Fold this sequence. Notes:
Blueprint: E1 2-8, H1 13-29, E2 34-40, H2 43-47, H3 53-66, H4 85-97, H5 99-114, H6 123-132, H7 141-153, E3 161-163, E4 169-171, E5 175-180, E6 183-188, H8 190-201
Parallel strand pairs: 1-2
Antiparallel strand pairs: 1-3, 3-4, 5-6
Helix pairs in contact: 1-5, 4-5
Amino acid sequence: xxVIEVFADIxxxxxxxxxxxxVEHRAGLGRDDVRLHVRSWxxxxxxxxxxxxxxxxHEIDDLRRQVAGDLFTGFDVAAFPxxxxxxxxxxxxxxxxxxxxxxxxxxxxxxxxxxxxxxxxDPAVLAExxxxxxxxxxxxxxxxxxxxxEGARRGVIGSPHFFLPDGGATFCPSLDIRKGxxxxxxxxxxxxxxxxxxxxxxx
Length: 203
């Protein structure tokens, strides 16, 4: 099995796009031997402040308009989680079962937030998702912080940060993101995505 490590936050919309596109490409190739290990990069810890839901909503508006009109269809700013730590902790617990379970929960949580407008810090929502995958519940917040500390040691610069099978590492390889006075400018990065695919799915 080939494993791609991705340090990311649940609430990062760029990660949602990147993981979705990579999983869709994998399905087209029939390469179930390639799996994602989605690690914790909690932006509230990185930045020292809670993530602003209005800021994320503006990013999502820009992303839908420019590159992802098919995603974020059910996003509800009013249901934005106050913290991503419990959802990250549930992901860690899922990876303790199996890499396939961990990947499935990492993707399911992002779908719940961005496509269904659900609060993934709500204990009832987390319990429902945990039960669907046979999990007792989240790991500890300490485990999330340890994951983040490892990412910092390894030079993670943002969400999502990919560590590739060929030994390379790259930040958000499928998108060209530029921030300026006029707002967020985002475009698909064909060269970046091609490099990601080549590393992940080489024979």
